[in-house]
Amino acid sequence: MSTDYSPAVNLMARQMESREQLRARSKDKAGDLIDSHQLAFSAVTSMIDRFSGKRFTKQPKAVEGRMSLSAQFIQGIDLCDVAISEGLYSQAAALLKQELETLAAIDEFENGRRRDGRTPNIGNGIMRGLGPIYGDLNNVAHVSRHDLAVQLVTVQQGENCAPTLIPQLNEGIARFLYGNHVYFIVELTRQVARIFEEIFDEGLSEEETKWTSMAMMILLKEKVIDLPPETKERYPHLDFAKYA
Asked: Can you tell me the distance from the alpha carbon of 74 to that of 81, in angstroms, rounded to the nearest whole number?
């Protein structure tokens, strides 16, 4: 079959065109959340760049595990951003679940609880309290709730209502996913800082700390995250009541 007339190629072309348009609309509606993403991502990238020229000696297995998981997380940031902004919400939620599990695994390595072959326990350690968010992500990723499945793929035009193969914008789901994606990057930044503090006795710079704080303040102002009390304790410098 000639690919010039392949139905698969034609569908993929339509999907790519729609995703490109959807990305522009998503970025426009995201507003300040775009800034929060850049601030959070810049903080961890800046910190890694500062230490990249230093000599790294052989590290214990737990430190190596934390470093490799951090690198995997960072490699997937752009892919997750694309999935959210281009309307691939089920796929984005699966990636966010992986981000959250990666954060939990890093914490398990740090505290001597990591066991090979086991899914990280979200209910323990630094990620405790985020179980409800993990459950929400699971619902979107596995479309286990009929109402969510319908929202993700159904288009209604007049009396016609049917699933579509072309991604559609859902602003509410996009904001939920994007807000938590940025929050997970902030949490990764904190974990990477602790790695460098152990190795070099130095972590976030004053500017990088400012960037992470600004990212969190935007998330709170936009009301796209709802942190449990035990998580709020990690940000004593933020006035949570102001954004309630």
From this structure: 11
